[in-house]
Give the backbone structure.
Amino acid sequence: MTPRLKFADGLALVALLLAAVAAAAGLLVSGLYRDTAEGIRQARATDLVTLLGAVPALALGLWRARAGSAGGRLVAVGALAYLAYSYAIYAFSVVIDPLTPIHIAIMGLATWSLVLTAAGLDAATIDRASSFRL
């Protein structure tokens, strides 16, 4: 694994930890979100998907990618894309709340991890990932 991919994985790991904390707080702390009732329901639903879907997928993908799995790398990239997209919505469309700095940090970490991962992949890894089957 190249130093660039190691750094990208480190950023992804920090994003994973922050996303787990932010999603858990969004689900457990009442009155945290300051949006309309519909916006709050949507934010909490996103928190649930993040906590039960994206965080475990990213953890598993990073673990398998560290072992050299192209499929694991592909899963990690997908989970990072989800985090970057979801937290961009939190950063730009949700009313500012106490978690806003964490939401912005997650968006930045996930985005930079994606950029560094894309720049750090070699042709052989991309070929192996394209033949990955579920």
The helical segments are 3-28, 37-66, 70-93, 100-120, 123-130. The chain is about 80% helix and 0% strand.
